[in-house]
Amino acid sequence: xxxxxxxxxxxxxxxxxxxxxxxxxxxxxxxxxxxxxxxxxxxxxxxxxxxxxxxxxxxxxxxxxxxxxxxxxxxxxxxxxxxxxxxxxxxxxxxxxxxxxxxxxxxxxxxxxxxxxxxxxxxxxxxxxxxxxxxxxxxxxxxxxxxxxxxxxxxxxxxxxxxxxxxxxxxxxxxxxxxxxxxxxxxxxxxxxxxxxxxxxxxxx
Length: 205
Hints:
Elements: H1 2-29, E1 43-57, E2 65-77, E3 83-100, E4 103-121, E5 124-141, E6 144-162, E7 167-183, E8 188-204
């Protein structure tokens, strides 16, 4: 869980900087006698992301880490109030792996299906998210390989900023726990728990 704590602290710091810059930008752009439409988060969106994952394998000393990237799609509901509710799914390719002694563990891919709840300051949205996680854990030793697709859970938080009517950029942190399975080649129950910090862009329809 320490990955979640450190990731959350880093995200809060980055989000605070983003919010301050956004407020300064919009403060220069609009004056009190100008009329503009408030930014809407409602509706479907599609986007891509890139980030870094790091974690550990239960019942084994390996700590796979590496670059991860993929696509996400979701839908938000907002009815003229600052609160935003949504659902989002993503699928990721991951380069997270590590070799320790005779064992090599890797996580070739993973995905999530999450609910989101956030509070919007016009074009800046702060949100929390959580739900289902799933992915593949692969073990290799002495030329033998064994894979299991595990299901688990994820929890995280993030910030998103609309920089155009149809475009937004986000940064978020997720803690992912893929439940353990019994691996024959290790003789143990192994699972993968990891932190993920990533940035992405969304196009809103």
